[in-house]
Design goal:
Blueprint lengths: L2 H10 L1 H9 L3 H12 L1 H20 L5
Length: 63
């Protein structure tokens, strides 16, 4: 799926964007909990997680 669409979903419906990137797993559960605490924490985490995932795929991680 296109990264731009996943980022848009991460902002609008955070768990959906994370699910499409990571599937069911720890990152998804963390995002659901953060979203239950409030839309903003869930959105911030979703955008960060998706950006980090795309960064690893491109191999541009600074490590």
């Amino acid at each position: 799926m296109k990264p731009l669409l996943r980022l848009l979903l991460a902002i609008l419906v955070p768990p959906v964007g994370v699910f499409l990137t990571y599937g069911l797993g720890t990152t998804f559960l963390i995002n659901v909990l953060l979203t239950l605490l409030g839309w903003l924490p869930g959105s911030i985490h979703a955008v960060w997680a998706i950006a980090k995932h795309d960064e690893r795929l491109r191999g541009t991680e600074p490590y």
